[in-house]
Specification:
With about 300 residues, the chain is an alpha/beta fold. It contains eight helices and 15 strands. Strands 3, 4, 5, 6, 7, 14 and 15 form a seven-stranded mixed sheet that branches. Strands 10-9-8-11-12-13 form a six-stranded parallel sheet, with helices on both faces. Strands 1-2 form a two-stranded antiparallel ribbon.
Length: about 300
């Protein structure tokens, strides 16, 4: 089969051996995959024939040998550990979800890592009905989904994004759009920060007493903290989210996200859709932050 392999000169599409699924894995013919910002850093460091790719959608060509999971011919979306940018992928059954006919493989491929991150980080804030939520980096793949999911949960959402994105984010359910966290009015029950550095410091200044600040891995910039930063915000929690450490398998939450897309209540926000032969173009657009939402590449 053909697959993306990362080399010292960058990622290339080349021939590799077909995967050999374990008993609890299905063999999926990948029809589309999406890119994640974290993969940009990995491509710079893992240059010894590393096989990238986590977000995939396609069709089961060989069901799991242990009898679990979807049958051959079933359309699925999945989150894999690696090697997803390929014509075939071996996927543990618990990491898949079945796609309804109304959800395209391109829409589905945009969901796994960004969608799971958005859903699970919002859960850290507890019941959001009637609560105030501040989302930084609201125009990114995770942020756009956080805005929508928080609004669906009944929260009053303020999104941090450039002014030209205001119309889209208001349509997604944001109550207000501001250009920087410090421009957000009042205090919030949940602050979801994906920028780090000064943005996180401002986020802490915007949290209500007893509220939750969720920190993602979108930016490695350190934020100096002091106990006095929490005066006026007593009892607030600062919680880090690392997707690989989440204790539950992706399948059930992927099914939830797919169901929301199928019902028209969630937009996966595909900002760029290209054949996978244009991988370099898509990677450049992601690295240069020229995207609104996700970059999705199709195979075949």
């Amino acid at each position: 089969m053909r697959a993306v392999v990362n080399t010292i000169k960058g990622p290339v599409v080349t021939g590799v051996d077909d995967p050999r699924p374990r008993g609890d894995e299905t063999l999926v013919a990948v029809r589309a995959f999406s890119l994640n910002r974290g993969e940009l850093a990995l491509l710079k460091t893992r240059t010894d024939d590393w096989r990238p790719g986590q977000d995939i959608a396609g069709v089961v060509v060989e069901p799991a040998a242990d009898g679990t999971g979807p049958a051959a011919g079933t359309r699925v979306v999945a989150l894999v550990e690696a090697a997803g940018w390929a014509e075939l992928a071996a996927v543990p059954v618990e990491r898949t979800a079945i796609l309804p006919d109304t959800v395209s493989v391109e829409q589905a491929a945009a969901l796994p890592l960004a969608g799971l991150t958005a859903l699970r980080t919002l859960r850290l804030g507890g019941d959001l009905l009637g609560r105030r939520v501040l989302v930084t980096g609201a125009n990114g793949g995770v942020g756009r989904l956080q805005v929508q999911l928080a609004a669906l949960a009944g929260a009053e959402v303020t999104a941090v994004a450039r002014p030209e994105r205001q119309k889209e984010l208001l349509a997604f359910g944001a109550r207000a759009v501001v250009v920087a966290p410090e421009a957000a009015e009042g205090l919030y029950d949940l602050v979801a920060d994906w920028a780090g550095g000064p943005s996180l410091a401002t986020g802490i200044a915007k949290i209500r007493p007893g509220g939750t600040v969720v920190v993602g891995s979108g930016n490695a910039e350190k934020t100096p903290l002091n106990l006095y930063d929490f005066f006026g915000h007593e009892g607030a929690r600062l919680v880090g989210y690392l997707s690989y450490a989440y204790p539950e398998p992706p399948g059930p939450d992927l099914s939830t996200l797919v169901g929301l897309v199928a019902s028209g209540r969630l937009d996966p926000s595909v900002g760029l859709s290209l054949p996978w032969e244009h991988l370099d173009e898509a990677l450049s657009a992601l690295a240069e932050r020229r995207l609104s939402g996700k970059a999705v590449l199709s195979i075949g």
